[in-house]
Design a protein that fits this description.
Elements: H1 17-30, H2 34-63
């Protein structure tokens, strides 16, 4: 039985220049595609929302 491939959907995102530059640097330094880094970061944030609740996660993000 052949495993099913994941289905992806694209969406536009605008980043501040400093965040975009940091993403470029980390991507080049690690040779991990920016898409992968972004996907992992978004997934981690969404998991935090699910476990801590939106209020806890947003408080953590807003204080950093």
């Amino acid at each position: 039985m052949k495993p099913q491939s994941k289905i992806y959907r694209q969406f536009p995102v605008r980043l501040e220049l400093s965040l975009s530059n940091a993403l470029d640097r980390y991507s080049q330094a690690t040779r991990i595609p920016k898409t992968t880094i972004s996907r992992v970061a978004i997934e981690k944030f969404l998991n935090e929302l699910e476990t801590s609740g939106i209020r806890g996660a947003l408080e953590e993000v807003c204080t950093n």
